[in-house]
Structure prediction request, 625 residues.
Amino acid sequence: MEILRVENLHVEVEGKEILKGIDFGISKNEVCVLFGPNGAGKTTLLMSILGSPNYKITDGRIIFNGMDITNLEMNERASLGIGVAFQNPPEIIGVKLRDILRICTRKRVNEELTENELKLVEKFKLTRFLDRDINVGFSGGEKKRVEILQLLSMRPKLLLLDEPDSGVDVESLRLIGNEIQRYINETGGSALIITHHGEILEHVDAKTGFILLDGRISRRGNPGVIFHDILKSGYRECVKCLIRGAKK
Amino acid sequence: MKKWKRVDSLTELPHKILESAMKAGIDVDARNRSGSYMMIDHSAVIAKVNEYFKGKLEIMDTCDALMKYKWLRNYVWKLVDKEEDEYTKKADENLGGGYFLRIMKNAKIDLPLQSCLIMASENMEQNVHNIIIAEEGSNARIITGCTLHPDVRSGQHIGISEFFIKRNATLNFTMIHNWSEETKVRPRSAAVIEENGKFISNYIALKPVRDIQMYPSAICKGRDSMARFNTILYSHRGSLMDIGSKIELLGKNSKGEIVSRAIATDNSRIIARGMLIGNNSGVRGHLECRGILLDDSAEIRAIPELIGNRRDIDLSHEAAIGKIAEGEIIYLMSRGLSRDEATSVIVRGFLDVDILGLPKELNNEIRRLIEKTTTNL
Prediction:
């Protein structure tokens, strides 16, 4: 059973077509990795699934959990169970981490975080950040931990992770990776992860990998094998050699 | 104009008056306050120190205090020039009251003092003169509100305030204004801070006003003295708010900070001025002014000024005006909020009371006030 199906997806950003007919799916409890060079459209794909208003879907559709969500607002998609960890989250003056966690956990006015929710905060070593302005003056590792903490607090069915392993120290990376894997094991959730250097794959058990090149999905397979090929011969060659292999 | 009788407790006052006072931050119960002063029109209705703090502070009507203490005359019109403009002249000629607050030497007052000036008659001119003395080594917080009776639409308020922060004293003064679209407001305040003294002045105005103009100043006269002005403005329904803060750093190693957060919408205008003057060695100052425009009908003008005349000073400023960043809205929407809800969370965060340096309790009270005002954005 699939949690996500993307069909013939075309997406424009500021009038320029970035995604040129994407087709792929993610099964329930599956972790997928999205590889691709800078500018290939990886973030665009994630943001389109998320429903970010700056990404205009010109053709195709997105099915989530059996429902067509192509025209839904971001917050409606969030409430259906799509969550994201941004690569470069914004700093918001005066809005505290505690406030955002209350939003993520759908609290009513004046309702406090539960003991379990606070335990998760502690696990991410962020208790002393609760009353600080979100991301203001946070280090790279702190920002990533804050992103994953928010994401897991939302209890989503599909986790969208945009470069969770870039700019993070080794310890934070291990913590982030382990918590993501634990969440997936416990909830049967699915994930789509963008990575350049593949470090996150040491901590998260991914079954499927894709290469996104020139706005299209060009190769699908075992993420370890794909990553090895990319390291050996680069994205373009890696895709080409697969195509040659298929022709033979 | 009705003459209001003295009362022994705020709860004896009419309900409508109390309601307005509460909106301006007044705790009617007064248990969590070290003392209370309230003036309605030109009548002081209460000037009372909480039992527990007797001997540590004094609260009186300025007119009564001037009769009681001859020496107080040396403090009146000492920092503000009575010839400064037509409003100071008017306040000098027709003094209608105001409060005299004095925190005694070395007194540590852990509950805030409160004062409230209410205009309850239509079209009146309220002229007050406040004198605040923080004696050596004292430490106190004052929360003061100026507001209208709910049935009153228009009037003019002129408030002269002079603050004297003596050696090693700390005073945190928070003023909340709650006016109407037809009120004209002209506060004129100045403070002097002696050696190692600290003065933190917070100003919050969230309700519409016809026009308010003020440019309070602080002179850091003593060595290692410090002044900080925090201003939170929400200007709507055609309000004009011309509000600045000025700090003159005269004492060696003195320090000044000016922070203002302004939101304007709905045909209103904000002029956010700020001035830091560095006149002695080792002084430091920073001025920060941020503004958000919620629509195209409003205008914010930020005018930061730095004046330095010593080599070894450090003065800086930053000013930014714009709309709410789309990236911030998207971020909150991805966590489950609608666009409107996200906007409102960002606006409330921007009007953050944490910058005021208040204790948690008082912070929460003011946060609730802001939430009430901004729920219908």
